[in-house]
């Protein structure tokens, strides 16, 4: 994992940092609207890597967390990414900090968070300014408790399997879509760990094979970012840009088991046609199951969640849906996670020398076989000699 994206001297106790604040209990919603140089005020226990990457990419100057960025349940890497990027992280500030109005001017003074007012700075709360050493120590401690978390996760998974198996694996209940999957390769893109690097590594595959492109929520924007238009977008649609929604892709809105579909109102407001599908699993599971049941020849998954830390980052207490779906689609599923690290093309010095030598040899052969070229080169050589003699005479005269 690359965390040293940029370095900035962290704020020290006694120093002040005054910026505009953006406030939201949902970090991914805040990331969508925060501007470079602003302060992010969030309420996010166990700050995950994807959220932290979004904050770093938006070039925030500070993060204030009402919650606890590392609870110790598992080794989440979000805080490490922030502090190694030089972004001050004031932790465990409590619910009072969420009362700060959006757009307020906020001052970070060591571990204090204050609102800038005409009469002076009004301290709202105090937190704890995390240092790199503290974050690393907390991560080491959380690694020792991962076994207990794994046991709870496995128990929840088995419990959820009993509830979700019929709903997830009943092919007759899958949404009816116009997209034709039969005999096609399908690329399912989720905005998960290392998705950018893996998409870049698959550039040649996408160009040569021309697979169907499915964007799972923000994965649709990931495809647009690399110059590809999604054929199908599946998800609750709360983290997809309007640009992606109006790109012409077919839309499948994921409704949860209670029937609530967070993004349906937005889709209807845009006047876009969509298919509503109610399921207990994750949107990426639905995408893979739909492709498999509709006859896809191969499913290539980018950025999908497949290990304990990634599921805990996502807030899942179990992985029943993913376990069942991957068992079902396994024969045609290729997980592209980490493909960018599998092999990196390198140009050897020997190969470069041979290429230059071959080019020179080819030019020599062409010149030797072409009378006009030989005459042209002789003329150029004569002109160079004349210029050289003229230069010598002017120097010594």
Task: Walk me through the structure.
With 397 residues, this protein is of the alpha/beta class. Helix content is 43%, strand content 18%. The chain contains 16 helices and 15 strands. The chain has helices at 27-33, 49-57, 78-84, 132-144, 146-169, 195-201, 203-209, 219-225, 242-245, 264-269, 283-293, 308-313, 320-329, 339-342, 349-369, 371-396; strands spanning 16-24, 39-42, 62-65, 89-91, 105-109, 112-117, 120-126, 128-129, 185-190, 212-216, 232-235, 250-255, 275-278, 298-302, 333-335. The strands form two sheets. An eight-stranded mixed beta sheet has the order 7-6-5-1-2-3-4-8. A seven-stranded parallel beta sheet has the order 13-12-11-10-9-14-15, with helices on both faces. Helix 2 packs parallel to helix 3 (78-84), helix 5 crosses helix 13 and helix 11 (283-293) runs parallel beside helix 13. The longest helix is centred in the last third of the chain and has 26 residues, at 371-396. It is extended. The N and C termini lie far apart (67 Å). 37% of the residues are buried.
